[in-house]
Every structure is written in structure tokens, then in C-alpha cells.
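Bug report

Summary: C-alpha cells for 4-deoxy-L-threo-5-hexosulose-uronate ketol-isomerase differ between web form and batch submission.
Environment: batch mode, default settings.
Steps: 1) Submit the sequence below via batch. 2) Compare with the web form result.

Sequence submitted:
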Amino acid sequence: MINHEFRYASHPQDAEMYSTEELREHFLIEKIFSEDDINLTYSMYDRYIVGGAMPVSKALKLETIPYLKSENFLDRRELGVINVGGKGKVTVDGEVYELSKKEALYVGKESKEVIFEAVDGEQPLFYINSAPAHHKYPNKKVGKEDAEVIQLGEEKYANKRILNKLLVNSIVETCQLQMGLTELLPGNVWNTMPAHTHSRRMEAYFYFDLEEGQTISHFMGQPDNTRHIFMKSHQAVLSPEWSIHSGCGTSNYAFIWGMAGENLDYGDMDFCAPDELL
């Protein structure tokens, strides 16, 4: 079954007036995974789609949704998939790609059939991002050994982390979609600090591998007028182009960042020093 919802974009001045409930309603995606379902959220931020597929007792086919007005889901889109569960496989137009945990797959425009399945009795959790595409690039699996790995942060600032670039233009050709995975080391809790914005791209964060009973406070908003959203593991949050996107957990965790917009320049960021945030 495919469940879907629609989110409008928000003006930053409007977002400043949102209550806690309204902030969560507009930006938080609470249910990414449910058994034998594909859950999708279509956002007006660069028409980005965030979702997840959890095949348990059957294979799940990625069908089109009403907002796309297309016969197939990928007629005018590209797709990124990162597995955050047990081993699984994704079949694209008859070609099978096995994905272990933290491995990724890029699926290009005009692919007709995408099917998600479990393998060897394990429970995969396929996290999905999709963006409009103007060109068909080849499908490509990006395993752990293929990632571009960067060490970031310092323990004294509680933000030591490992950034794995997976679906980025130095590894795989895409139209505008970029995805990667960041892991906080034990004892470290802050991500994306110093914070930044990038007015040429929106972003979505998906948090996982958070210890049960713990929480993450995700910070958003303009640098001089910030807000926060408390989140659980396996939840995602939309980040507009005008917003910072940073977080702090009550334990360490991992998260997936996905982006779409006007360019593929990973370093195109406008930084804000920690002591400048309000």
C-alpha cells in the first residue's frame, strides 16, 4: 500500500508565528516506516519527496501518486534510496541491487518499475528521497566502500562525526538530488554545527540509530530567529532554503541528509557562528 500526503511551503515570517503543534505539522514527518507500506510526503520545497518502504511479508512496488500526474513514479523524477535496516533488495526494471545497512542506490529518470523486497528473512528499511529530473542518468549502487568519507568535528565541542557522501556528484551523476549519511561518535551529540543555510537548496534530515527512550532536538528557522522540534528515531524533518538545520541528541545517533535545488556544489553554504545564533 502507498500512503501519501502533501505539504505546502511556508514563508519564514509565517513560520515565526507557528505554535509547537503547527511547527510539527508543517515540517516534521513522523511516520516514515510502517509494515508492508510505502509512505511518501510530497513537499513544495523544490517538489521534494521524502518517504520510506518497509517490505515485511511481500514485495512493495513504487507506484505513481496523484501529485505527479504521470503514468510512472519516475517519468520525470530521480530517486535516492538508502537502507537503514537489515539486508534487502531493490529491483529496477528487472535488475536487482542488494543493499545492506547504510548502502545507497541511485535510480535515474524514466525507470518504469521499482520493487522493494526483504532478503534472507532480514528486515530492510528503505529510506527514500526523490526530486524532479531533466535528464536520465544511469542507475548506480553506492556501497560503503564507495562512499567519500570525511571526519568532522571535535570531542571538546561534542560534535565529532563521520560524514559519508553517497549520492553526490563526485560519486554518481544526478540532476539535482544529493544524499549522504552522518554518524555521531559515542559521547558526541551535536550535528551540523556551526550551523548554516543554503538559499539555493532545500534539505531534509532523517534521524535513525538513536537509542530507545532518547530524543533529538532539531533546530530550524532563520539564524536570528530559531525554533526547535523534538524528534524520535526514524522520523524526518523538512528544511526550507531559509532555515538552519542542526540538531542535538540526548545520546549519539546517525542521520541522512538529502538535498535538491539549483546546484550540486556541496560547499555552497552560508555559515553562522554558534555565538551568533538567536
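Above is the batch result. After comparison, the two runs are identical; trailing whitespace caused the diff. The chain has one domain: 2-276. The longest strand covers residues 201-208.
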